[in-house]
Amino acid sequence: MITSHKNQVLQWGDRILQPGEVLSLISEYQLVPALIKEIIIDQAIAAAEIVYTPEEEKQVCEQLAQQYQGIDEQGENFQQLKIMAIRQLKLEKFKEATWGGDLNSYFFQRKAQLDRVIYSLITTSEIGIAQEIYFRIKEGEQSFAELAREYAQGPEAQTDGLVGPIDLQSLHPTLVNILSRSQPQQLSPPTQINNVLVIVRLEKLLPAQLDRSMRQRLLNERFNQWLQGQMTEQKWQIQIS
């Protein structure tokens, strides 16, 4: 528990930690960056003068009561949870106020990387086998799924060669280039990526849409970029007297 004695900061069981010990442990366990992030967030929310309505506060309390059924809403634990939930509410309002206005343009800047794809893949390390697989699929002698089960050397062997849906941005640049230029059901010849050869066929392109979940994702992305910049700009050090 946290105490209020002059030189006593933290008590855990029978162990009492002094201020210097607490700071040393925070540094040793590399908790300073996380602490500074929270301080930066608090300062930004305060500077932006983020406010919330009584209706929003009521909704927060109702959500907490539902999540923690049976908890005493007048008790200390509930009040601590409420403080944390209100802070999160303010943070989301800060994100919206700061980056929500130009989110549409940011979405279109990022759209090519946000599109998702479903594709078929076979990886092999032997050029002869790769060429044989390619021509068998192209001539319709065997299905992609059959050849994936038989020859694929990666995890796609367990999924009949199917991969996805997956964000384009998470793939190897060479694979992104192939899939971006392909039409559905277009088979690409063997291509070397790192130490393996890949045979790829685009199955379906799933264009990104600025729906609610995508909007939240992009707001979080912009916020994290900003926060990382703040962390880089601000210098800090621990002083233990």
UniProtKB/TrEMBL annotation:
Which PROSITE patterns does the record associate with it? PPIC_PPIASE_2
PpiC domain: residues covered: 112-204
Reactions catalysed according to its record: [protein]-peptidylproline (omega=180) = [protein]-peptidylproline (omega=0)
Q: Name one GO molecular function term.
A: isomerase activity
Domain of life (superkingdom) = Bacteria
- Sorted UniProt keywords: Isomerase, Rotamase, Signal
The enzyme's first-digit EC class, named in words, is isomerase
The EC code for this enzyme is: 5.2.1.8
PANTHER family this protein is in?
A: FOLDASE PROTEIN PRSA, PEPTIDYLPROLYL ISOMERASE
Q: What is this protein called?
A: peptidylprolyl isomerase
Tell me what organism the protein belongs to.
Dolichospermum planctonicum CS-1226
What's the source species' lineage? Bacteria, Bacillati, Cyanobacteriota, Cyanophyceae, Nostocales
